[in-house]
Amino acid sequence: MITVRVPSPLRSYTAGAAQVSASGRTVAELLGDLERNHPGMRFRMIDEQERIRPHIRIFINQREVHALNEDLRSSDEVHLICALSGG
Amino acid sequence: MTLSDSERERYSRHLLLPEIGAAGQEKLKRARVLVVGAGGLGSPASLYLAAAGIGTLGIVDHDRVDLSNLQRQLLFATADVGESKARIAQARLRALNPDITVIAHELELRGGNALEVLRPYDLVLDGSDRLATRYLVNDACVLLGKPLVSAAIHRFEGQAMSYVPGRGPCYRCLFPESAEGLVPNCAEAGVLGVLPGVLGALQATEAIKLVLGLGEALIGRLLTYDALAMQWREFRFARREDCAVCGTQPTILGLTDATGESGQAPDRAARLKPQQLRRLLESPGQAGEAVAIVDVREPREFSVGHLPGAVNIPLASLSERLVEIPPHSSVVFVCRSGNRSQAARELAARAGRTELADLEGGLLAWAAMVDPAMTVAPFK
After folding, report:
1. Contact A55 B156 (CB under 8 A)
2. ipTM for the assembly
3. Fold for the domain defined by B267-369
4. Which chain A residues are Cβ-neighbours of B37 within 8 angstroms?
């Protein structure tokens, strides 16, 4: 299982959890697994054209994800980052 | 710009640091720094910058002090409730350090005034509470070539990054477009009062380092802070060649009041389905209002097949050729699949045009749902 760090604006989908586990060999599969367990979460990150939404960034460990077909290893940690607006 | 005896005493702990010394302190005295937003972030940031002896400190805020601000906005006291934030901040910072100049900009930063407000400063700190303002400040800094130290907070979480012209990516490289409405602010989501203290102090640290040319700045690095887990993390990100403001072919070339909202998420109503476009073309409205169809594909694609009456302005040349579109007409952008047309509509909106729409799904959808006789050229 892969550890996924959830930013606070998306925690309404994870019952407040800052960290969840999910499985997948690619980022796309991981997002599919997240959606199965946390319905509605994927659409907050991925648009109708299968692109990462422009206010969301996904990092595998510290490396930015540019395409959903990027591979994942079970030791990876995935960080979902959301633009914050508060000041 | 030498230091007086009282300044030498005031800044003695800085002067003891070989990395700062008298020469560094004089640099700080010559520096002009603008803090956008006298809120949770702007409070600690401006207090520390004033204390550090930044010679000219500007504070932008159009709001008034509210009782609910005092849980985290340390510039203000209970007696200040109802007063102008910029004015109170000015008085508080002057009281802290009478040797510096504090300028209160009691105004709302908009596309129409951002460049003028930012221009006299050497460096900008963004502590605003709206995404649209964050994009505006970023775009203005890129256009003016000013370093920017940006931070934002939400509940128990914060993030910070710096932009230095020519040395790395800007805020828009990280988050290309805003999602106002999808990202709640402090008033909507709540915030731990001390959280902006941590991030605001970090912004002041970055600003002082940038002025002095000390250490490693947060360039191309997003620093995140989780107060509950008490964890800092760093994520590397690169400049985007296609960044709308700092990329190789920027589409944001200036700011107007219309671009003050440039970070707004695209309005869904501005995307027409093929059937809606057909109805619009069949009955173009009252009083003969014109609808201009602008096809933003390449000439090669346009020549294979296009909508009747469409004019061809490829997306790559749209910013220079916007003037060719009649000013008082409604405009519908079209392309092959709807991606270029959406970009075209957003570009035109940033340039101040109104009455804009684009064809959702592009001519492929048009051919599928309205006109099977339409031939749509492949993209490549």
Report:
1. no
2. 0.94
3. Oxidized Rhodanese; domain 1 (3.40.250)
4. 87
